[in-house]
Amino acid sequence: MKKIRVLIVDDSALIRSMLTEILQSDPQVEVVGAAHDPYDAREKIKKLNPDVLTLDVEMPKMDGVTFLRNLMRLRPMPVIMISSLTDKGADVTLQALEAGAIDFVSKPKIDVAHTFENYSEEILEKVKTAAGAKVQATGKKKASAGKEKYSADKIIQKSSPPTHFKTTDKLIAIGASTGGTEALRDVISEMPASSPGIVITQHIPVAFSAPFAERLNKNSQMTVCQATDGQQILPGHAYVAPGDRHLLVERSGARFVCHLVDGEPVNRHIPAVDVMFRSVAQNVGANAIAVLLTGMGADGAVGMKEMQVAGSPTIAQDERSSVVWGMPGEAVKLGAADDVLALSKIAERLQTLYKNLDITRQDKKVG
Asked: Would residue 76 count as lying in a domain?
């Protein structure tokens, strides 16, 4: 089996050494070289022809994002950013994802030498995923893991959907992971201010979720924010799950509200799409629409099926337009997706669906 050839680009000798040790521990991965700055990296890319690049966000001579933009214009390839969990690191990393990076790994703020090895499993998983991911050339539109793989039962028990509704409010629930920050921007930017409320679970660290919501807000006709506990879900607004808490949708009288809960990782993620989808299936039913965008793993597939059974129309992003067709692909295999669409078609389909939602379908299903 051909090994995945990786080039490490980082100005820190310690990080270069630690990344080399982590990556070389897997027999499927080979570190073919290391570069201390973008100019060194440019020459080694030409010479070594790596399959995947790990790239430090902050480097001397040329910052990582500038180098990435040049790279994606001249020689597109899978890139994993190595970023710090700071406000500045979050902003720069989101810029890197916008510029074409596949994913990112966060460095701890302190004691890097003793704690970076705790990220070994995540680093290896993301490098392997990147090796098979679709890289989008510049100019084209285009998560913290836990140790145990729990289901949504760990956070919210499965129950029958409600048999009737006291509200005509509609809701859209969207889940995403690898490649999802840019996919979400593409979808949300096309949604009008008159859209139903949207709840979003994107696999992202807590330090990044608020800046991510702010970036979405700047590119949207809707008002986008990081969700807070008890916050009412209003039309024309979108709510992004914080990176360290599960986002559930609950009913408060005739209103829908955000409910944030701590708990175990579900499908190895906090927040988890399955948790959000299940809560929507149970509390919103046929008045909701489910969307599952690009991402590695299977989170969201089971929850989407539960929403479908509850009467919700469901949409999965297609393989061709996905950076990684893991999560939407699993939903398709499960028969949970009513529509399988290119990313560019999803916002248009959502607008058609929510305008034509039949709020009596749930009564017909149970009756």
From this structure: yes
* DSSP string computed for 8-21: EE-S-HHHHHHHHH
Beta strands in 111-265 (DSSP E): 171-176, 197-202, 223-226, 237-240, 246-252, 255-261
**Can you tell me the distance from the alpha carbon of 290 to that of 67, in angstroms, rounded to the nearest whole number?**
37
52 and 194 fall within a common domain: no
Residues annotated as part of the active site: 177, 203, 299
| Residue 187 shares a structural domain with residue 70 | no
Q: Lowest-confidence range among 8-22, 56-70, 132-146, 256-270?
A: 132-146
- CATH code at 238? 3.40.50.180
CATH number of the domain residue 95 falls in: 3.40.50.2300
**pLDDT the model gives residue 138:** 53
Give tens-digit pLDDT for 309-346: 999 999 999 999 999 999 999 999 999 999 999 999 99
Range of the domain at 284: 153-366
Looking at the structure of the chain, the number of domains it has is: 2
- Cα-based angle 94, 266, 273 (whole degrees, multiple of 5): 55
CA dihedral 127, 68, 189, 105 (to 10 degrees): 30
